[in-house]
Design goal:
The chain is of the alpha/beta class and 278 residues long. It has two domains: 137 residues, Luciferase-like domain (TIM Barrel, Alpha-Beta Barrel); 108 residues, no CATH class. Helices cover 36% and strands 17% of the residues. The chain is built from nine helices and ten strands. The strands form two sheets. Strands 1, 4, 5, 6, 7, 8, 9 and 10 form an eight-stranded mixed sheet that branches. Strands 2-3 form a two-stranded antiparallel sheet. β5, α4 and β6 form a beta-alpha-beta unit.
């Protein structure tokens, strides 16, 4: 499936080690250490199967003997397989990312928190003897873009008020609240409704989850300023080569309209160098 969809090198794979309806996949409940040990083996094995033939692998969770995947993924320059994206903020998750992932994805949190995690992951990569190309970093965040700053904030606040009015319990995914990365975002609301210039934390208090826990709110120029690479070399956004904007999911508008707004506005306002535009 990956090979048939990878024309032009467009496929990227996001690995999720979360909980869910495990029985639907023939799995059973396991602790965090077990889940991430299995994830690490999966990443090791899939990379081998994409790049080697006659693979033999003996792990605790996966075993193959003399295995070759057909059809083969065609290398494109130094890209020998689709990039493997990975999230997670727990210690176990970061140890897997530091050695096995191609790109570590962050959710929307203040730049100081992003910087702290980038430095820790780079140190872990060196400490654990990463064997692949240096770990890259990306951002997955909900954007709430309108023509003007005032319009964006008025509509964002109105949307949060509507969410609060319609909030239901329990949340759709009861496991999500216990995830370390999710808890980091929920805790941001205790520091204020708006952090940095335009990171809106209030959605997390009324049911927003995952990449929708915090929103980047503003005009196209406001959001582009928050996403673009500033001048100082030490700035954390210098390292974020893979923004994966979740889009204006909060608006409840059709995806096509949301994509068009982002393309006409915030993405066009980004400089041609620096962050790649996805």
């Amino acid at each position: 499936m990956v090979e048939s969809s990878d024309g032009g090198g467009r496929v990227r794979i996001n690995i999720v080690s979360g909980k869910g309806n495990l029985g639907a996949y023939g799995e059973h409940e396991s602790d965090q250490a077990h889940r991430y040990a299995r994830t690490k083996e999966f990443l090791q094995l899939v990379r081998k199967l994409w790049t080697e033939e006659n693979v033999t692998y003996r792990g605790e969770h996966f075993q193959v003997t003399d295995s070759t995947v057909l059809p083969r993924i065609s290398p494109r320059g130094d890209r020998t397989h689709p990039k493997l994206y990975f999230g997670g903020a727990s210690e176990a998750a970061e140890r897997v990312a530091a050695t096995e992932a191609d790109v570590q994805l962050f959710w929307g949190e203040p730049l100081a928190g992003v910087q702290e995690r980038i430095e820790r992951l780079r140190s872990l990569s060196e400490e654990l003897g990463r064997a692949h190309a240096p770990l890259e970093f990306g951002l997955r965040i909900t954007t709430f873009v309108r023509d003007t700053t005032e319009q964006a904030w008025a509509e964002a606040e109105a949307k949060v008020a509507e969410m609060a009015k319609n909030q239901r319990a329990p949340p759709q995914n009861p496991h999500r609240q216990t995830a370390v990365g999710q808890q980091r975002l929920l805790d941001l609301a205790t520091r204020g409704d708006v952090l940095d210039d335009n990171l809106y934390t209030a959605p997390g208090k009324v049911g927003g989850g995952g990449a929708g826990t915090t929103w980047l709110v503003g005009s196209p120029e406001d959001v582009a300023k928050s996403l673009q690479v500033p001048g100082p070399r030490h700035h954390p956004l210098r390292a974020l080569r893979h923004p994966v904007c979740a889009g204006d999911r909060a608006s409840g508008q059709p995806a096509a309209a949301v994509t068009a707004r982002m393309s006409r506005g915030a993405l066009l306002a980004l400089p041609s160098t620096g962050l790649r535009k996805r």
